[in-house]
Structures
1.
Amino acid sequence: MAETNNNQYVAKDFKSDQEVRWCPGCGDHGILASLQKTMAELDIPKEKYVFVSGIGCSSRLPYYMNTYGFHGIHGRAAAIATGIKIANPELMVWEMTGDGDALAIGGNHFIHAIRRNIDIKIILFNNEIYGLTKGQYSPTSKKGLVTKTSPYGTIEESFKIGELTIGAHGRFFARTVDYNLQLSNEVYKEAAKFHGTAVVEVIQNCVIFNDGAFDAFTSKETRDDNTIVLHHGQPMIFGKNRDKGIILVNLKLKVVRLGEGGITEKDLLVHDAHEPNPGIHYRLAGMTYPDYPVAMGVIRAINDQTYDGAMLEQHVRVQAASEIKSVDDLLMSGSTWKVK
Amino acid sequence: MGNRSKVIERDTVVIRFSGDSGDGMQLTGTLFSNTSALFGHDISTFPDYPAEIRAPQGTVGGVSGFQVHIGHKLINTPGDFTDVLVAMNPAAVRANARWLKTGSTIIYDSDNFTEKHILRAGYKSDPFAEDKLDSMNLIGAPITSMVKEALKDMEIDPKTVLRTKNMFALGMVYWLFDSKLKYTEDFIEEKFGKKPLVAEANSKVLRAGYYYAETIEALTPSYHVSPAPIAKGTYRNINGNQATAWGFLAAAEKAGLKLFIGTYPITPATGILEELALRKDLGVKSLQAEDEIAGICTAIGASFTGRLAVTSTSGPGLALKSEGLNLAVMTELPLVVIDVQRGGPSTGLPTKTEQSDLWQALYGRNGESPVPVLAAGTPSDCFTFAFQAAKIAIEFMTPVILLTDSYLANGSETWKIPSMKDMPSIKVPYAIKTDTEYLPYERDTKNLARTWAIPGTPGLEHRIGGLEKTIKGSVSYTPENHEYMVRMRDEKVERIVTEVPDLEVTGKKKGDMLVIGWGSTYGHIYTAVTELQEEGYKVSAAHFNYIRPLPKNTSQVFSGFGKLVVCELNTGQFANYLRMKQQKYTYHQYNRLQGLPFTVGEIKDYCKKLLEGK
């Protein structure tokens, strides 16, 4: 997938004729725009894309993409996407899902798709709330959040998507923000290039039921100081004035100021997205505000054999060795006898 | 082949091998069946085993049995009652006592009839006296000690020695039936090829059993069953799960599609996945999914990309798949769901047979959800109906449910191997790119199927899903559109009737009674009715393989008879379905719910009583 675009697409080519029905100001509009822009820039014929989804606000996205699309049932997008990719590995499969869809009702399919390393791109819209059912808490809602179904605050721990992904043997995890079009474009392209299950958590603001949940690190005023954009091979520096960094002390990440206590850029961690050992990636993915800056960009990207690829190899091997080439051959194989 | 003082010539004989679930009875029965089939007998088999892999030893609950019916005439059931019982312990006698014919032969391992085993089986001291089996032809053979003796010079561990006991019993039975040992010896060589000592031990014990039977006078009379008058052709043994798997392979090849199976292991359906997982040589993509739901959802994904997709399950799994099934109803994608029924509800009787998922198949989903339902009648029939289910699914763009059950899945019979060139063609309704916009829900005017636009094809990009759509594929909550689409989906399934062959009648088209069945009860009902006819009763049989839609001549067939009796292994699900679909008739019911197939005798008794007004 080269950077040059032989298909000469523009973002508009990926807009379907369906009216977009998300609430005005919803982060989903930003995600849709970034994806359409990304698709136009990838060197892949439009008919090779399949957008698959489950249920929820996120899952309406396939209707708005002028590609092949399949709007599934609640929680099952990963399973449907798995079937599509295995059945036809030539297709590029993008799964659109949300925190309720992928992590509550669909948690099982989510972890197993990752474990198997099916070559699908999972774009997980995380707004930490149930939107389409009008404001109940989700598996990523912060503990204590008051919602319609937790009027006295939730009493359960939340999932951190990156930790769950890496814990399920995930090879690719990245994070971006709905309206950060440049970062999103960069991250979606990396996911597209990756062979295997690519999980992208998109921090997505629900303007109706959880508005401002992420302002502390996504607003123009806060984002430079409260997030860190990771790039492979580069030192972990962040802050409006590029004066903060991350080091490792006693196996724990620590935020430091450059210049304080003799700390220089050389002391900082250098991001290695390709390190198979998940230790640092797990810690980076788990960083939460206000203790840490929230990590953005590609946190982990490990090349490994995909399930669909391994299956093709097995087919080639078995077919070369087997004497059964047709159903007639099969029916006549083993113990048979003739009656004359 | 030795001295045979008395040989009984028989048309059919029923043999049951029975022991602890670790005694190798399933293998012993299978080897005997295959040997008989190769000799030219018609056969029908019925494995009957507990859900536990190694149930408590010596208890009735842990008894595993394998019954085989061999015949010089054509065989349609595994037989009601046994002529020969092989009992490896007292529990096996207890479990089978009520299934023995008068004058049966019981071969038993006398070494296992110790006080401990006798008590554990629930007897006080003398199993044969307590179950009134004294008058049977009892042949106690010290199998355990004979096996130890036969292998005493070989350097193998005691566990392996004891594992060969089933071969000793099998050897005895082979002598009893004057059978050849070659098939079993070849099997042993292939199975234990890498362990020559184990292979040698098994062969040695097999022959030891054979010669022991020859030596002891007690084993007379022996049986002789001549080969059956079977039509010309090439034959093999096949069980229902294997036949189902192969039927899908045949349909895929005929349609020019690749086969995909996404499924989750569940008794008694797992054999279908195991069989298809082997067939990578024929391009089958098989996925053992994380659960039943993922099984059907991966299959739906595969179907969306233009594969023949199937998912296999049993009753509890069908419940989990119902939402996915409805997604296939709504998206109108071809998909076959095989429900290998077992005793329910809930986990129920996992290894036992029942026909109690009929209503679940017909109605167990939200909304108006029309799904064609087919049911296979015999183990080899599963091939035909798997093929037919796939053909209907593809040509009508619809999910189809195929019902088989534990009895068919594990039971086997001789099968005349078909040739692929004789199988019906399957026409795939591919969408073709034209100058106008592609409309996903535009229908064929005749059979109402939509077309299949395969991802990867330029110009046919479209979106479908679980929300109600217009013909164009746009989401729509318009009242008129919903009603229109509901009625279209229903009408499409009704039009499948053009593919359904007329209901056939076994016997005369008019009479005092029609015995109606569906699915796996075919053999028992057929045998019962033909025997009643031979006894002079004006009784016929009609058997349904197509449940939805019903054959178009159903009412015409029913109208020729005084009484209609519906026999099924549930509380009357098909009878009640007929009461709704064919309202002008009165239906009598004969129902059993014991996790076992019918017996021919009980069907006959019920019919006679009803005919005689008792």
2.
Amino acid sequence: MAEPIVRAAGLEKRYGLRPVLRDVSFELEPGGALVVTGPNGAGKSTLLRLIGGLAAPSRGSLEIRTERRKVGFLGHEPLVYRELTALENLDLYGRLYRVPERRERIGMLLERFGLWEARHQRISSYSRGMTQRLALCRALLHEPDLVVLDEPHSSLDDEGLTLLDAELGTLAAAGKTLVVATHDPGRVASLATAHIDLERA
Amino acid sequence: MSITRPSLSALAALAVALAAASVLMIFFIAPEDADQGLSQKIFYVHVPIALTAYGCFGLGAWKALRLLLTRGERYDLESYTGIHQGTIFGALTLVTGSIWAKASWGVWWTWSSNQLVLFLVLFLFYCAYFMLRFSIEPGPQRERISAVYALFGVALIPVSFFAIRLASDFIHPTVFTRAGPQMTGSMFAAFCTSWAAITLLAYVMYRTELAGKRTDVNLRELREALAR
Amino acid sequence: MTAYLGDVAALARKDLRLELRARDTLPAMALFVVATLVVFHFALPGGASEDAAYGLLWVALVFTALLGLGRAWTPESEAGALDGLVLATSDRSAIWLGKALATLAFLLAAEVVALPAFALFFAPLDGPALLGVLLASVGICAVGSLVSAMAAAARGREVLLPLLFLPLAIPLVVGGVGSSISPEPGAYLAFLGLYDAVFAILSWAAFEYVVTE
């Protein structure tokens, strides 16, 4: 097996004295897909924030064999500016990530996720489903090698769900590594190469 | 405790002994000041307390820097305790300074003592440290933000000092002047003894408080572990 | 280096664009500072010296700046955009620099209103005084942007920000007032420059630690 792209050993995360994650260990090979399940409050989002690079473990080790800026992250919040348009948001992120041929890439993503017509509208006027789609565009904008998605299916309508499933399939086929936290493991079962079920710490 | 490292109680006993010695020296050995009389004796306490406060703030900032650079777990409590001690001694500086001002010039406060004004500004700054710290959820972010603030504190010390000097030059021309005391041998000895006593006392308080806080943390961790 | 400055420019532009759309912070600051100056007229006793007025100018500027600083990081907290920036930027200090520059632009714009109003209501402002305002504004925005980010991470941030900011602003007030009233403003202006250098570098270096874990 190739060198794992993510390796966790005895991961522990606590805020002050409150433990959120306890003794989590796994290995994820490049091109694999890790599905994370568990009840609310079990620490799924925290684990994904650790993998995405937004938090550091309190104990244990977490090795991520890819550059920080080659990770794409979709969290509970869309991480966008509500009073900017979709185009302006993606343009800003495109500049920061130094995306080559930025305009083309943004156009392509917006079109793929059905947001092209709404590209000049501010996010404050978007529905939750549209916002989620935009957040996906943002997460995938810089063609990350490791894609970390926290409950990506939430808030999406049927069309959005179809688009997302298609995208996940495309990413997996292209050899990208996925980490997906979900309440609906059945949806991603065909892609999954590894599974973690978290309990409340 | 290793044999070479003196125990806390031994240090505390030494601090008490030094304090007693310094009291004797202050009142019986050091000569009385011609202008200010008995009230000048406060100087032997006020200045070492001020110096100790600076030392504690410096210690807090040093531990803060270590925290940011190495992410070591212990530095957060050490930095916090250092700042806490510094604030206590800072408050004492203001109190002893105020007493000295009353005894020397008949006023409880004067803006012309640069040191006193500096401590007022620092006192405000470090009080805000605690408000900041206790408004953030415990965790790595709180540790880092507290550490950055502690570092800003030591940068503020010299900058504020210059500012206050500049202010008294022009904005508030000095009404009272006090030449730095020319210390004779016996005065210097009394001063140094007092300084040693107060520094040692501060160190003992620091270690005691730190031990207490660590015990608190350990206790809570045990409770958490048992509750599960 | 050019890439870094490009990031800073993109981030500052974003803030300017947001303000131009919402148009809430800048008018509020301008109105606030003029209202404060009017209050000061009524607060100053009749025989007060002209110098006292310069002191009050600086109080007005500091509190107007606080108004702007309190809202500086609001767009980033709305939908978690700060996390997005932390992920996307190669050097997180660019986030601070972009924000500080945008905040400076707003503060200067408010001063374009405040300073003529002050000259009209109270006393004239000469070259050194204006230079003092400029230098102090840089310091206010440098330190203020960092401290505001700290407060944003805490509960009760509206109350916390002034507590964190005011002690740090005291040297700026000294420098500013001194450059307005002293016949030898050079020392005060140099001091402001020193403050700016020290605290800008400190804020630039420390920002990374404030926004990451």
